[in-house]
Write a structure and sequence with these properties.
Largest sheet: 6 strands, mixed
Helix content: 40-55%
Number of helices: 37
Number of strands: 22
Shape: globular
Radius of gyration: 34 Å
Structural class: alpha/beta
Distance between the termini: 81 Å
């Protein structure tokens, strides 16, 4: 029996648009709905054998139902602009994929689908309708079934009855009773699916329900009787018309040949790289835009001295070499080499195993021998190298006594500079930029409990994976770096900030930080005692003991036993006990305040005082954090394992943890911190005359702002007024609304609005800057730092409601936060450069927000404290002075 497959394109278009993330190409063109619908069509063709196919969309304009009922679909909002922009490429792609596409004026897609299904039935052809619309279930019969390709649901006659509780022939009556809110067709008031199923099960049809309306008691019976005049019209609107005059016949719906050229052009434009690659493989030709993506591969496993010598000569004569290491673990300070991969040209790579250890493993060259042969090349700064996250590989080689030099490029950082808002792992980059699906680490080692160590991976498979890594990295460089070179601003960020700071971070991580482990242990014990005391106070206030770490028990205590107001609910509908809720409740009730104190101490204990001593490196007796360079979209560094950037400073217990970060005997800790850096950047960017003047004069900017807002002399500003001004200053640079400001200050919204209006009257340049930045960001989809770093905010165009508003607030702050990030990186480069050229023993050991922390020998203290403000103050020329506060002490807390 022949088969007709009909796709309800309009249904899937909206579902894909709302269900998928906001995908865009580099030009900011939305692509998510297109990708979702095309993926569904491809899946449907693979899983379903069809003799005839068609994709059906609603046509523009009114239909006959609008003439019957002017309010039909009247409550539907207009199609979002980002969805409108995807219609043209979607329709073109569908036709190019060989699908006949139908849009018939004056009728809906459902009517076209219904008519074609009945015509096919008359010719003995079965029909499969792919849709997510329940209305179409009325068409199901022995020759027609539904599939929902997005949810893998399939409904025949039995399936419809199991899902809805009524037979397909009863579906129109069922829909008439419950109504259709999407199409603005009212049903019977207060009648839902259960009641409709009950009536139709009892009476069989809508006509029979109407005939027995007087017998139905209660409010629903009364509502039914009120709706009786309307029900025939509702049924008429909800019935799919199956006799539409169509310009096509069944024979016109045979699958058409694919237009590969049009698809290739569209997929390139929309940046569907994986599909571009599939087209290339199918045609056997390489696309002009990415000729490297289908390079023939020649991967070699190096097991002999002679083969190693050949590759030593190859890399020595190559202008740029891609290098990657395979290791025993992920900790850069302790992991050891398992193998090294090298690539000198696309498609030509080698893997040098040194530590594979499994039954039957071939004999390999030793780590010492390989590094003896390649070490000189690795340490030569004139031999240029490229890699993906080379800071890690440099640590691994340093663990074996080799200090790699000549790091010319890093594809992780190239991606970060080009597209900070996207993922930067090599597998994602290969898919996005080369259209290549790489072999993943999971592919070769397995997952979960069955995962094996890389040294146990068979050499043949290890070579495929490791050599591909080096090969793909070189190809990525060839794809990404030309784009950076074409943009002077991005090239400046890459060459003068990101690549040089990679070297500084390596040195900092290698140095590590000295900890007083015994002090942390004492603090941990003290925190434990305080937690016990607090727990007793909480139980006493609650009137009974309970588990403070159980949200369910806490809900019962707060909202049932104590009767506190529910401020918000969890996604599951339960009263929330998150920190924001407890903070709000703590303003008026002692119990939430005690719980917050307990949570704060618990976090300090588990995250720092308990954990930090366990993270000491046995060889150095120091803790070595990792500074992730390509995480935050603003350019900020991210500290992890352990995170040294989030140690609280607002509580006494948090500050005491900093006391455990110490200097060795004969040295001190020095802290250098940019003063009010983001406010200074705001003054520079906004060019507001009053702000520029205040900073130039060295005034206390919060006192100055309070003086301007409250209309008093600077000397007469109270501490409370200064506090208000400080909240306003920092709040506004984060795009805070009047509502947010009112919440921060604990005042009425109208008062907060008044303060904001006064602020902008006194600082009109700030207001102009904010408005201009919002407009520019909406237009471009990104903002820039003073140094040209591009910060993408996709939800400025693709988000809706709160997400778009959040993106607009981020657009105001991002240039300031990003510029501050650039400044501290430039400061790190300048300070480390001075330390190195001066051959000092001072170490740069931490970077935290706008602060640099150094370990300084006593003999160098005066020089360091004198030079730091100069070095950090002149890394950039802004229209405000860059002021640096410097302190010193035996530990970090006393230095800050």
């Amino acid at each position: 029996m022949k088969t007709l497959v009909l796709v309800d394109g309009s249904s899937y278009l909206y579902r894909a648009f709302h269900a998928l993330p906001d995908l865009r190409n580099r030009q900011g063109e939305p692509t998510g709905a297109v990708k979702g619908v095309l993926s569904m069509l491809q899946k449907l063709r693979k899983e379903t054998s069809a003799d005839y196919i068609a994709c059906v969309f609603d046509a523009k304009g009114k239909t006959f139902r609008d003439d019957w009922y002017p309010q039909y679909k009247a409550n539907r909002p207009p199609m979002p602009e980002d969805l409108v922009r995807q219609i043209e490429p979607l329709h073109t792609s569908i036709r190019a994929m060989g699908w006949p596409l139908l849009m018939i004026e004056g009728v809906e897609a459902d009517d076209v689908i219904g008519t074609l299904a009945r015509q096919a039935e008359a010719q003995g052809v079965q029909t499969i309708i792919s849709t997510g619309d329940k209305d179409i279930a009325q068409l199901v019969n022995p020759m027609v079934r539904l599939v929902n390709t997005m949810s893998n649901e399939s409904l025949d006659e039995k399936g419809v009855e199991e899902k809805f509780g009524v037979k397909p022939m009863q579906m129109v009556d069922y829909l008439t009773l419950i109504g259709d809110a999407v199409d603005n067709v009212p049903g019977v008031e207060k009648v839902g699916p259960k009641t409709a199923v009950k009536w139709l099960s009892q009476y069989g049809t809508l006509d029979a329900v109407v005939a027995h309306a007087q017998e139905i008691t209660g409010a629903v019976g009364e509502n039914l009787r009120k709706a009786l005049p309307w029900l025939p019209q509702a049924k008429k609107l909800l019935t799919i018309k199956c006799d539409v005059e169509l310009p096509v016949k069944l024979d016109d719906l045979e699958p058409k040949p694919r237009d590969e050229a049009t698809l290739a052009q569209l997929f390139e434009r929309l940046e569907f790289k994986t599909w571009v690659h599939e087209l290339q493989e199918r045609s056997g030709a390489e696309a002009a835009s990415s000729p490297r993506s289908t390079s023939p591969r020649q991967y070699e496993t190096i097991l002999t001295e002679s083969a190693l010598a050949v590759w030593r000569d190859r890399i020595s004569n190559a202008p740029l070499v891609s290098i990657d290491t395979e290791t025993t673990g992920l900790d850069p300070m302790t992991a050891r080499l398992v193998g090294i991969s090298l690539c000198v040209e696309a498609g030509s790579a080698a893997y040098i195993p040194v530590g594979h250890n499994y039954a039957g493993a071939p004999e390999q060259l030793s780590t010492q021998r390989v590094l003896a042969v390649l070490g000189k090349w690795m340490e030569d700064p004139n031999h240029r190298k490229v890699g993906q996250n080379l800071k890690y590989d440099r640590h691994i080689l340093a663990n074996h006594g080799v200090l790699m030099s000549g790091i010319e490029h890093d594809t992780l950082l190239q991606s970060y500079v080009l597209e900070s808002h996207l993922s930067h792992d090599m597998d994602s980059l290969a898919s996005r930029h080369l259209g290549v699906r790489t072999i993943t680490y999971d592919d070769v080692t397995g997952k979960g409990a069955s995962r094996i160590a890389f040294e146990q991976v068979a050499l043949e498979r290890a070579t495929e994976y490791a050599a591909e890594d080096a090969d793909i990295t070189l190809q990525l460089h060839q794809a990404l770096y030309p784009r950076i070179e074409q943009d002077q601003k991005l090239a400046n960020v890459y060459r003068t900030i990101e690549m040089p700071v990679l070297e500084v971070l390596f040195t900092m991580e290698r140095s590590g930080v000295l900890l007083d482990a015994k002090l942390l242990e004492r603090q941990s014990s003290e925190l434990g005692e305080k937690m016990i005391q607090l727990e007793n106070q909480v139980h006493q206030e609650a009137g009974q003991p309970f588990n403070l770490n159980s949200p369910k028990q806490l809900q019962e205590i707060l909202f049932e036993r104590k009767g506190l107001p529910v401020k918000k609910k969890t996604p599951g509908g339960q009263p929330s006990t998150d920190e924001d809720v407890l903070q709000e409740l703590a303003l008026d009730h002692p119990l939430p305040k005690l719980i917050l104190e307990y949570r704060s101490l618990s976090k300090l204990k588990s995250t720092y005082t308990d954990k930090l001593p366990r993270m000491l490196n046995a060889a150095t007796d120091r803790v070595h954090t990792n500074y992730a360079q390509a995480v935050a979209v603003t350019g900020r560094l991210s500290s992890n394992d352990p995170n040294l950037q989030n140690i609280p400073v607002r509580t006494a217990e948090g500050r005491r943890i900093r006391e455990a970060f110490i200097a060795p005997p004969g040295s001190v800790i020095v802290s250098a911190d940019y003063s009010q850096i983001e406010l200074r950047i705001m003054a520079h960017l906004s060019q507001d005359k009053r702000l520029l003047k205040a900073f130039a004069a060295g005034e206390d900017v919060h006192r100055h702002t309070a003086s301007e807002i409250f209309g008093v002399e600077s000397a007469a500003v109270s501490s409370e007024q200064r506090r208000y001004a400080k909240v306003i200053n920092f709040g506004l640079i984060y795009g805070m609304s009047a509502f947010g400001l009112a919440s921060q200050l604990g005042i009425e919204r109208a008062a907060a609005q008044q303060y904001m209006e006064r602020y902008f009257l006194r600082y009109p340049g700030v207001k102009d800057y904010m408005e201009h930045t919002r407009e520019s960001a909406r237009s471009l989809g990104y903002v820039e730092t003073v140094f040209g770093r591009r910060l993408y905010l996709p939800e400025l165009k693709g988000g809706n409601g709160p997400r778009r508003q959040g993106a607009e607030r981020a657009a105001i702050n991002a240039p300031m936060q990003g510029t501050a990030a650039d400044l501290i990186k430039l400061a790190m480069i300048a300070v480390q450069g001075w330390i190195s050229t001066s051959r000092m023993k001072t170490r740069l050991i931490m970077q935290v927000h706008d602060e640099l922390v150094l370990e300084v020998p006593d003999s160098e203290i005066d020089s360091v404290k004198s030079e730091l403000p100069k070095l950090m103050g002149r890394v950039a020329t802004l229209d405000v002075p860059l002021t640096v506060d410097v302190g010193s002490g035996p530990n970090w807390e006393q230095a800050h």
